[in-house]
């Protein structure tokens, strides 16, 4: 038991010495860096990131770069979600215009919803316009005639 305890103690001391040497090496590497290091220069040269974030001595460069990459990835994901949300809002607004135009056609011509949709679609195709543009024209003419 004593021999096993001694071997374990020796092994622990060796591991502690190795860890201390690694720590000293990290401190030397950080000391060779300037007081602040732009994270964008620590990795991929082909990154188009304008953002530079500085770190100070005592910060693990790999961890800092990893966090920086994570934040960049999350920011890109938020931009994508914002773009998708904007597109969904635009689609909803366009759908509202088309439905309003269909309602106007249904009332004014006494036709079904399907017939109103078909008329809008045919007008869009024959004039080489989008349906939402034709719908907006129908709405503006109807408002002008009502006013």
The shape is rod-shaped
* Percentage of β-strand residues: under 5%
Radius of gyration: 33 Å
In total, the number of domains comes to 1
Number of strands: 2
Helix content: over 70%
Largest sheet: 2 strands, antiparallel
Distance between the termini: 101 Å
Task: State the main characteristics.
4 helices; 147 residues; Arc Repressor Mutant, subunit A; rod-shaped; 2 strands
SSE topology:
Elements: H1 2-32, E1 37-38, E2 54-55, H2 61-109, H3 113-126, H4 131-146
Antiparallel strand pairs: 1-2
Helix pairs in contact: 2-3, 2-4, 3-4
Question: Could you explain how this protein is built, in words?
Answer:
This protein is mainly α. The chain has one domain: Winged helix-like DNA-binding domain superfamily/Winged helix DNA-binding domain (Arc Repressor Mutant, subunit A). Helix content is 75%, strand content 3%. It has a two-stranded antiparallel ribbon. Helix 2 (61-109) packs across helix 3. The longest helix is centred in the middle third of the chain and has 49 residues, at 61-109. It is rod-shaped, with a radius of gyration of 33 Å. The model is unreliable at 45-53 (pLDDT under 50).
């Amino acid at each position: 038991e004593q021999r096993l305890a001694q071997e374990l103690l020796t092994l622990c001391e060796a591991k502690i010495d190795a860890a201390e040497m690694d720590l000293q090496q990290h401190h030397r590497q950080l000391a060779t860096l300037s007081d602040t290091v732009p994270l964008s220069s620590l990795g991929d040269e082909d990154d188009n990131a304008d953002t530079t974030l500085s770190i100070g001595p005592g910060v693990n460069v790999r961890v800092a770069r990893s966090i920086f990459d994570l934040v960049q990835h999350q920011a890109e994901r938020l931009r994508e979600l914002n773009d998708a949300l904007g597109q969904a809002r635009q689609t909803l607004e366009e759908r509202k215009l088309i439905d309003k135009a269909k309602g106007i056609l249904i009332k004014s011509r006494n036709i079904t919803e399907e017939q109103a949709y078909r008329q809008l679609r045919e007008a869009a195709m024959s004039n080489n316009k989008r349906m939402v543009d034709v719908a907006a024209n129908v709405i503006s003419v109807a408002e002008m005639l009502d006013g």
